[in-house]
Write a structure and sequence with these properties.
The protein is an alpha/beta fold. It has two domains: 140 residues, Rossmann fold; 206 residues, no CATH class. The longest helix is centred in the C-terminal third of the chain and has 35 residues. The chain starts with a strand and ends in a 5-residue tail after the last helix.
């Protein structure tokens, strides 16, 4: 029997999967009894910071993969740089065993993304292995924070709108400063770097989304849940800023590169549910969705202004046509059609890219739904899959299912709750 600590982490999960696939008996030390594990793996709850809780996890094991993932352990299992990777005898009641003591055939083979601990670098039996902790969550941070397909698609599909923005600014620059018309669009694109400045992010998002800072009581309730989620993910929670949206709807959202917000109603959730939705929002940050969205929003602003202007003109056109109603119904229709064609022709001449944006709507919505599924998957990876699925199921019952029409579902950036529950079940989450 092999025991694996950190069994729901990035490296530990690979070890458990490799051992289970090889048919080796494996016992996974987890903090949450409902953690998603592969078939064949035995889950045992315990905490490395509490040696008394490790008895069941270590009973009868022949080897242990010990990967704490953080520095602030206390007690006899605390690891410091260059300490031996072994579980003390006073915990197990039997001689210390190390990862190097495993039979070579039982050592898992790691994928390329986990090169920190490849099997061929394990010390031979009888050797004294050494290990320097890589730090909290730093083993596979690059893989975990990698920008995924949905974030890339969001940027790619925004190209027509961004091109429209730059074209609008170029035309405006042509009127103001013909010889250097390119300065305005180039300056606007370079100014997009301001979205990476925390002060700008907090100021703009607090105004646009009508957020406020949490009260002391709200912060007292919110902070432990956020700290638990960040600890499970192995990230520094202090680099994010928590906000509250004064809404009665139960919701939460992530924005920019450092913003996480919950509605006032979400603060009424029990701690497991609150941690689940915070884990989902952290998943957005780790996948790069929110950073790309804020940058694209900045670059799209001129095109959005032009789009609003076009909508205003489109609203005015029928009213102008009614002026000719006294000349007959045919005259009114003719004037309305001619004005509409004129607006479309002018728009196609001034900014042809803008005409493509309605066609890209369903694809862009699909890419946003992919982002939601990715964030759910990250929450499940952190051990919050069951709580998140139960919340989504409750919301689905509250809303009496998904009553949206087909077109509304195609244009929605959020998938139906029941679809998200099904995806979580496919990941092995058990309700």
């Amino acid at each position: 029997m092999r025991s694996v600590t950190g069994a729901t982490g990035n490296v530990g999960a690979e070890v458990v999967a490799a051992l289970a696939k090889a048919g080796e008996p494996v016992r996974a030390l987890v903090r949450r009894p409902d953690a998603a594990l592969p078939d064949g793996a035995e889950a045992v709850t315990g905490d490395l910071d509490d040696p008394a809780s490790l008895g069941d996890a270590l009973e009868g094991v022949d080897g242990i993969f010990l990967l704490p993932g953080y520095h602030d352990l206390t007690g006899p299992v605390a690891l410091r740089p260059a300490d031996q990777v072994a579980v003390p005898a006073e915990v197990t009641g039997r001689p210390a065993r190390t990862f190097a003591d495993w039979p070579r055939r039982a050592r898992p083979r790691f994928p390329d993304s986990s090169r920190t601990f490849p099997a061929d670098r394990c010390a031979p039996p009888g050797a004294t292995p050494r290990w320097t902790p890589a730090g909290r969550g730093s083993v596979r941070d690059k893989e975990r924070a990698r920008v995924d397909l949905s974030a890339v698609l969001g940027v790619v599909l925004a190209v027509p709108v961004v091109a429209s923005s730059l074209l609008v600014l170029g035309l405006l620059g042509k009127l103001v400063w013909p010889a250097y018309f390119w300065v305005l669009p180039a300056g606007w694109a370079l100014a997009g770097a301001i979205t990476f400045v925390p002060v700008y992010e907090h100021l703009v998002l607090s105004v646009l989304l009508k957020m406020r800072e949490p009260s002391q009581g709200e912060l007292t309730w919110l902070t432990p849940s956020w700290a638990a989620v960040c600890d499970a993910a192995g990230v520094d929670g202090s680099r994010y800023r928590l906000w509250v949206e004064p809404s009665r709807e139960l919701n939460a959202f992530a924005a920019g590169g450092r913003t996480v917000a919950v509605t006032r109603a979400a603060l009424d959730l029990e701690r497991p549910g609150l941690e689940a939705i915070l884990a989902h929002e952290l998943g957005h940050h780790l996948s790069g969705h929110t950073r790309a969205t804020l940058l694209v929003h900045w670059l799209e602003l001129p095109a959005r202004v032009l789009s609003r202007l076009v909508r205003l003109i489109a609203w005015v056109v029928p009213h102008v046509g009614r002026v000719f109603r006294s000349f007959g119904r045919s005259a009114e229709v003719l004037v309305t059609v001619l004005l509409s064609l004129g607006v479309l022709t002018a728009l196609a001449f001034l900014d042809p890219w803008l005409l493509l944006t309605p066609l890209l709507g369903p694809v862009l919505a699909w890419s946003k739904r992919l982002g939601e599924y990715r964030a759910d998957r990250m929450a499940a990876r952190l051990g919050y899959g069951r709580e998140l699925a139960l919340l989504l199921k409750a919301w689905n019952l509250r809303d009496h299912g998904d009553e949206r029409r087909l077109w509304s579902r195609l244009m929605a950036g959020h998938p139906a709750h029941i679809d998200r529950v099904k995806r979580l079940k496919d990941l092995g989450v058990r309700l």
